[in-house]
Design a protein that fits this description.
7 helices; elongated; 3 domains
């Protein structure tokens, strides 16, 4: 195997490990989303609305990285369920601001607790000091390399 092939194989293994770790850590969030009856894009939109305190469709599209028409459709469905409402913009009445309902704001804040790394804390608690140190060192080096090579 050539050195280039070996590097590619290592990069693919790293990506696979990171993907698996992410999925494991997101499992409680995915379960909560499934229980809510909302789709992941809907939850993402609601989360952005709560964080932004109300946003225009253009702002939501940019934050979510989705087309304006897609975001508009998501907002329409959430509006029919009473989870968001369109309000005239206070600065320019030709524009509208999308605002999350109080129910949504409460839900998003409680769901934020699921983002806490409790499952990782438990796993780290059972790990040796040496293993925890190796994990941090490897992640720190990986992040530093990626940030250096992919700086904006």
């Amino acid at each position: 195997m050539s050195p280039e092939q070996q590097l590619r194989r290592e990069a693919e293994a790293i990506v696979d490990h990171l993907r698996a770790i992410r999925l494991i850590l997101k499992r409680p969030i995915a379960e909560a989303i499934a229980e809510s009856g909302l789709t992941a894009p809907q939850v993402g939109l609601l989360t952005e609305l709560v964080a932004g305190g109300g946003l225009s469709l253009k702002e939501l599209s940019a934050r979510l990285g989705l087309a304006h028409s897609t975001v508009s459709g998501i907002v329409d469905r959430l509006e029919r369920r009473g989870l968001v409402r369109r309000e005239p913009d206070t600065r320019d009445r030709r524009l509208t601001t999308i605002v999350a309902s109080e129910e949504v704001r409460t839900y998003v804040k409680s769901a934020a607790a699921l983002h806490r790394p409790e499952s990782l804390v438990e796993s780290l608690r059972r790990a040796s000091t040496e293993d925890r140190s190796r994990i941090m060192e490897g992640l720190t080096v990986s992040r530093r390399m990626l940030e250096r090579d992919h700086a904006p």
